[in-house]
## 1
Amino acid sequence: QASSALVVAEHGGGSVKNGSISAVAAAAAVLGDSSPVTLLLAGSGGSELDAAIQHASSAHPAVLVARSPLLGQPLAEPWAELLVQAQKKGNYSHIFAASSSFGKDVLPRAAALLGVSPITDVTRTIDQHTYIRPIYAGNAMATVRFKGSGPCIVSIRATSFPAVPGLALTGVGHPSIRGNLRDGFPEAIGKSKWIGLASQQTERPELGAAKIVISGGRGLKSAENFELLEKLADKLGAAVGASRAAVDAGFVPNDMQIGQTGKIVAPELYIAVGISGAIQHLAGIKDSKVIVAINKDRDAPIFQVADYGLAMDLFEALPELVAKVPSKRL
Amino acid sequence: MSMNPFCEIAVEEALRIKEAGRASEVVVVSMGGEQCVETIRTGLAMGADRGLHVITQDSSSLFPLAVAKLLQALVSSEQPRLLLLGKQAIDDDCNQTGQMVAGLLGWPQATFASKVSISDDKESVCVEREVDGGIETIQLQLPAVVTADLRLNTPRYATLPNIMKAKKKSIQRVTPEELNVVIGSDLEVLEVTEPPKRKAGVMVASVDELLDKLKNEARVF
């Protein structure tokens, strides 16, 4: 059977999300140049979806579009059913998605409906059916092979598949496929209702894509003290993250959590401030190019993984850093 | 065998729902070899009413899809209104089982729950979930599947009297054959290796030295 991939393309604010572009890169890497890769974009309709479709088709010729009021929100039930229908229509050998909270929610449900085991949170591809994924909070890597019949369903860790804009979205000249899937959803769909999303508005770069990330832990002692980190982040044009302890203590909201069960980051520079370095936190930062740790406890485990460690009181170090660090913002 | 931390949180939530008068019974399920009995006893000691042990010869063949199919079969005989799971196991870090069983059952799902509120009429559940963008709130009609995230609650310790009481609670054993589920697997783990180690780093003595290294050695500025 010839290979072909469907990539679930999440979009927001009128463009395809970075994680999904990474998923396209992974699909193209696995399948090779001669196999078609189709992007699936869906929503309830409107200008943002149209803009996202434009963004997708400008760089990639095969785009499948689904419009339905049921797809206006990221609810797993209609989206999983959409994937089932897309699969029935397109008979893809592979389905890819980013391992975002949306991908984690939807993909396994869709896989079960299609009767296959997905391989999730992949960091490396070996061949079309063999992938590497982290286990034990990234302390071990498992090489897993899919040997079923049915689509090979894979979610990828975006930080492991850098999205090179333009390059990643280049198709091989396949004709444009624009289909509108009909509403044929079974009963189960109407049983969930989206109420709302509480999120913080920020101008800072997204954690998953930022070149520099500055992260705070319990050592910051209060929500107000995170302002010290924010000053440093602003000067460097960095994103701000946090350890689980800081989120549990209520210093910062959950979407800043970095770690095994939070966000995975792989920036050029990761600065951990007042973070002890629990294994679960390290799981989220291992692929950073350079790790810096600032902690007054010389024995903190974070110093085992840091490229540069500064055993100093962060309340002294931070103001000095803010004053002396080169400004990235123009 | 100690209980997966996320599952402990799920058990705790079930107990709180029962204590709030929104459920009449809490049943804990574990699947695998004999070591599951200890895990189930922990759940019973926390306060669950009874246990179910799906006994399999070989735990390594229990990939999430197999667990989901077994749960689906159990649900059809037990008829619970709420299926609570931990969001992921801390060994394989899959984060799939809850979503899969919800799909197989045709039930709505709420994953990564940080707050669970059953409605007064017990017909629906309102769940706050931790997602990439913040906290999302959704409402599901029961029966439903909910998977627990870290901040949903802090599980209780089993008290000694409850540990003693747990010894008298029943644990029913059932096999996949009895549930009419064939455990196959479409996945194979070829090998498990250590990830590449990071080179050891150095300690710096001052902010000036740090900035110098970052600029001239690491060249990130």
Note: Residues 176 and 182 of chain B are 7 Å apart (CA to CA).
## 2
Amino acid sequence: MLQCIFLLSDSGEVMLEKQLTGHRVDRSICAWFWDQSLSQGDSFKSLPVIASPTHYLFQIVRDGITFLACSQVEMPPLMAIEFLCRVADVLSDYLGGVNEDLIKDNFIIVYELLDEMIDNGFPLTTEPSILREMIAPPNLVSKMLSVVTGNASNVSDTLPSGAGSCVPWRPTDPKYSSNEVYVDLVEEMDAIVNRDGELVKCEIYGEVQMNSQLTGFPDLTLSFANPSILEDMRFHPCVRFRPWESHQVLSFVPPDGEFKLMSYRVKKLKNTPVYVKPQITSDLGTCRVSVLVGIRSDPGKAIESITLSFQLPHCVSSADLSSNHGTVTILSNKTCTWTIGRIPKDKTPCLSGTLALETGLERLHVFPTFKLGFKIMGIALSGLRIEKLDLQTLPPRLYKGFRAQTRAGEFDVRL
Amino acid sequence: MFNQFGSTSETLSKASAVVLRIGTDAHLYDDPEDVNIAPLLDSKFESEKCEALKRLLALIAQGFDVSNFFPQVVKNVASQSSEVKKLVYLYLLQYAEKRPNEALLSINYFQKDLGDPNPLVRAWALRTMAGIRLHVIAPLALAAVSKCARDPAVYVRKCAANALPKLHDLRLEEHAPAIEEIVGILLNDHSPGVVGAAAAAFTSICPNNFELIRKNYKKLCQILPDVEEWGQILLIGTLLRYVVARHGLVRESLMLSLHGMDSNGFCEKDALVRDLTLDKEDGGKSDSFDVNLVNVVSKCYIEGPDEYLSRSSCLDPVTSAFDSKETTSVAHNEDVKILLQCTSPLLWSNNSAVVLAAAGVQWIMAPLEDVKKIVKPLLFLLRSSSASKYVVLCNILVFAKAAPSLFAPHFENFFICSSDAYQVKAHKLEMLSLVATTSSISSILREFEDYIKDPDRRFAADTIAAIGLCARRLPTIPTTCLDGLLALVRQESFAGDPESVDGEEGVLVQAVMSIQTIIERDPDSHDKVIIQLFRSLDSIKVAAARATIIWMVGVYCSLGPIIPRMLTTLTKYLAWSFKSEASETKLQILNTTAKVLISAKVDDFQMLKRIMVYMLELGECDLSYDIRDRTRFLKKLLPCKLASHEATEDSVASQENIAVHVVEHVFGSKLKPFLPLGLNDRFYLPGSLSQIVLHAAPGYEPLPKPCSFVFEEHDQLSDSDRQRDAGAVLDRSQESSETGDEDGSSDYDSESSVGSEFSSDDNERKVSNDASDPAAPLIQISDTSVSADQEELRSRRALDLWLDDQPSTSNQTPSAVNSNQSSYAKISIGDIGSRVKPKCYSLLDPGNGSGLKVDYAFLSEVSIVSPLHVCVEVLFENSSGEPILDVNLEDEESMKCILQQCANTNST
């Protein structure tokens, strides 16, 4: 089981340590860890499980903050990693993001949360809605109160009722004057276009996100019009397996507030909404680049915030790129970003320019990969449609809302 | 003006930061010691105490030791404010062990809090009390835990379950039974939350007390879907271990059903496997499951890889099948059926650790045809966070090694995104090269082409290695691969100065190595490629790549009609470039020239000899001592060859002939056949830490021995079922072992008939009789004929032959007389061992008197191959009642320099 959790800032400073068991871990392990990650670079940073001379380390990095957990004995590594991810999620939910300042400013809350989330190295209470009841998130009111009176406890005196019930994700009796439930389909398109311009892989990763503000103990059923297109899925613990197995209906008692009901994947899509046509010719140490971006198949809604970013190869010594639409920025680490926004009606956005290669190189022999970003509100590109959302016992005033959006996930266009 | 504006904006942003930080604890973290903490702790205002405690926590967070405040802090444990209480507890847990005496002061308050009507207060008190780790209070804490284990509030019971490992960790023997009893009580709890925590306690306290599980087995399975995710992970593992310990592995599962498939080709499971293969992909049957590897994996799961690998010889992975009594079947065993049913929906869990644990159960226990349902959930995990992606890939890789056909249709999932971390990319490449089939290879190769142009050159080099692996696995594609690789080699070598670009050398070296791997499979049909490589030698500048190609010159120097004619030119070129080479290339040049010299025809010989002599002279005064060493070595060895090449027909002194033998063995040997991959890999249970770090982490336990947990009150029905099953299987397994035996012996026969064309088995046996005859003269002078054939055979199957040969081969009768045979006189000292008894050492001694006994002794006679070698006699004795099969003696070192003789006495 886990013995200790460290939070490291992006400069390697130990911001916080929380010993979990009697076997204390000296913080010199963090110094070892940081030395290694400096000397071995990125490949060490991306290694989630590390065998150090004294401990096994598990690390995740979230917004520059490294969450480091130590163990000396065998334990499922995914459990440690999932737990650290959960900690990071809860913290960013509480503090509105994670960064060095936020964690240092709210270190008491971080301590209290960690103490509630893990006991003796084993996760205790990780359900966000229950945690919210035990430890109040910092908000403007409590801040003001603490300034005025100098005393505001954020630790609850009583045990949340949900902590022991058979639906541990739900407080027993929330009361709302207006009952509302919102369902969002949030989809990400993962695609690979190879160097021949062929669509090698195109699939949708989607999540059904809900925000439920319902009184009492509601029992919901959500059904899709075309569940057969779903290839893979994973469910929130509240979803009952039986109804899904028998007739693909989601039946559940929802947690209170926002949560992710399920995630799914739809594979083998035929088309992408946006095309990217890169071209490169090299001759005598200079390369001419031109990239066209346009709409391939109109999804019926506006495609917004289109961006294209790529990493210039090492052998490029200087780049001179310009576009007829949007802005191009090249950072010092040779990352080039082209922000297009919406595609105008009258012209096709085009990025063009020249790259100068390092002396001695005639042609470019390595090619960058373009990462495309876009966002389309109001449509789920997978074609998944929600048929209906039913409540077993209808509360007096109920508002149901449905939304959908698609954005680019891991959308790679190889040159 | 401008300046001012800048400063204003700066102050503005500062001001806004200050506003944002108002009301937070920022000032406490930044300057925890700007006020005197001690008086605050004694303040009568809760808010001041709270502030003081926060300052102390800030110091702890920054790594300072503030244990000197302990007495003042402990006093505040009596506070009514929940926040103060919480902070005091946080502090106490940090330092209780350091200040035991003061910590004792707090016990009374905990006792009082344990009776509090508020469950939260009770839970906190229990958690802290169990966490302060003092032996003195252990009995009190145990009493508190056992009281809380029956608490009406679920949360308190859950904390009680979490407290148990803390008490167990104190290692107080007298409390162990009481602790285990409480674990039993909590496992029996009706609330899923408590059961999850109890499962965690069970895993860390008494993972092998299966009696506790047996009592609640069915209930635990039913409650499993409702248990919290973290508890599920451990409970799944516990249930799996219980079922294995109670009922053994499942016969229809992947782990066992492939057993004996190769020896007993007609068993019905084979048909099943074939069905599976047919509906999967067109990949060959050998592709669908790696039988040997599956056996190794299942053995590793049961015994732990370290034990297993040390016990069994790596070349003979198919060891005895599991005892048929130790297996069970899904159809007849209710417990197994329930376990599979309750874990399969967990493949949809949101928590990737749960999915992996459930997949592990299905992998080990599910019938062969059901195993494929773990594939999609596992692949979907690859879309989660990058950290878990890596861990999942490591596990999938093991599954795919054993059963590539499971993942073959899903190869697209392993295509690489630019955002993947390097390790993830490397694992995905390995997956792609494992699961490639004839139908998917074309798209995989197209992907590989793209990867080669990736800016990350280390990744590009890995891709090229993966191409080599693919080509070796799939016999149909090498030509296309080779063309691509050759083009790459040309392009890379003309790309200019490779040193200017990072990692470019690696790509080139890897390309040459991949070509070599592909050629190795079937050198005869690829001689054109080899020639092209030789031609490009001059343009390749990277030392490692040059060395590999030069090595290939030596190995393939007698291949096809064209290469032998190129040799003189090539060696001339090598001699010319020798001076400017890197030392690794120089070593290869020396070796290669020696090899070429040996295989050379008479007409080239003079030329080659001159080149060799020239190079030896150059090498002798080289700067590197490795090269000087190698040169001296060759100089000692080669003169016989240099002098006697034309004169092989004449009889030469045996001493020199022995040198010729050695030279032949060192430089004339053929490549060893390619060993199957992965048999030496270590396998740990899926989802374990050990599988990721590839060594057994402390506390790692393999699955319990099948049926090691015997419960006396047998369930009548299942017992009779088991016996019936066992009977049926026993018959079958006997059958298979018999056929296995036959296979083994026939295999042996064929080998020895290949190896000993000139001396049949009977002959040898006669010889051995002669040798053991005490009347034989000690010194023998005899004629021996050595045919060229024999030399070659000896070089190829050297070890086999030596093992079969008898001490004095002096009176061997050549059966196949070759035209260019040569005979020579031989003086040998006869079997001195029969007169002087050499001292015997025992290598393997059966402790209980039955089993295999192995002794060895160093003999005093001179080896027939070289006077430098030593003869070792190894005696095998079977002191058990049953025959021992497949005794295998192997040599770990390369076969260059060791001669072994073996007199195999099998006294049954």
Note: Chain A touches chain B through 110 residues (CB under 8 Å).
